[in-house]
Specification:
Layout lengths: L13 H6 L5 E5 L8 H26 L7 E5 L3 H11 L11 E4 L5 H8 L10 E4 L12 E6 L4 H4 L2 H4 L14 H4 E5 L4 H13 L1
Parallel strand pairs: 1-6, 2-4, 2-5, 3-4, 5-6
Length: 204
């Protein structure tokens, strides 16, 4: 914002990139039944992730392309929340295994960071990354398909910085299949507030 106008050579906004088809289309997902607890939010994210996996598997098989594993990014407020969230996600009714959940914080081990570096590889076991605001500029992978911003961070998470983590296209271009060309942002705010936020984003 401090850059003077005369020093800016060219503007290209996120909205233009979405319209031009160079990134995924962000979709806000909410509930009309009022349930907004963390477990429900994470369960909805996992359900979306399974639907994404089925669509990706079918498309890659039909097109003869390398396997892609859709991953969910969960943004937490602090390390304690991240640890509790990772434990929930590892349960049988969610991701189903501790190996499928990777927690990335300021205290993460070198092993965890190595797993993060390999998250795009077909043999990576990681299906959910739980982060405490660690994955911003400079961290971009193509297989983030669901973003789950827990309530404490929701207003901040619906920004270009966090949203941008899930916008890259795993197959290099849009497929024409909505389930593969979108990144879902799971939100459990009141439905009216969610629609109002969507209106603001569309106007932007």
């Amino acid at each position: 914002e401090k850059t003077p106008d005369e020093a800016i050579i060219f503007h290209y906004t996120l909205a233009e990139a979405i319209a031009d088809g160079f990134v995924k289309i962000p979709v806000l997902v909410g509930r009309s039944d009022g349930h907004k607890d963390t477990r429900t939010q994470l369960a909805d994210g996992c359900k979306l992730l399974r639907a994404k996996q089925a669509a990706v598997d079918a498309y890659a098989s039909q097109a003869g392309l390398e396997l892609v594993n859709p991953v969910m990014l969960v943004v937490c407020a602090d390390i304690a929340e991240a640890d509790a969230t990772a434990e929930l996600l590892a349960g049988d009714d969610m991701i189903g295994t501790p190996n499928g959940v990777l927690t990335i914080t300021s205290q993460s081990s070198d092993e965890a960071l190595e797993l993060l570096d390999r998250v795009e590889q077909p043999n990576s076991p990681v299906r959910a990354i739980v982060s405490v605001q660690m994955l911003k500029e400079g961290w971009d992978v193509k297989n983030i398909y669901v973003i789950c911003a827990l309530r404490a961070l929701e207003s901040q998470a619906l920004t270009e910085q966090i949203l941008g983590r899930g916008l890259r296209l795993p197959f290099g271009q849009r497929t024409g299949i909505p389930m593969l060309d979108t990144v879902e942002v799971v939100s459990h705010r009141r439905f009216k507030a969610l629609l109002d936020s969507a209106e603001v984003l569309l106007e932007a």
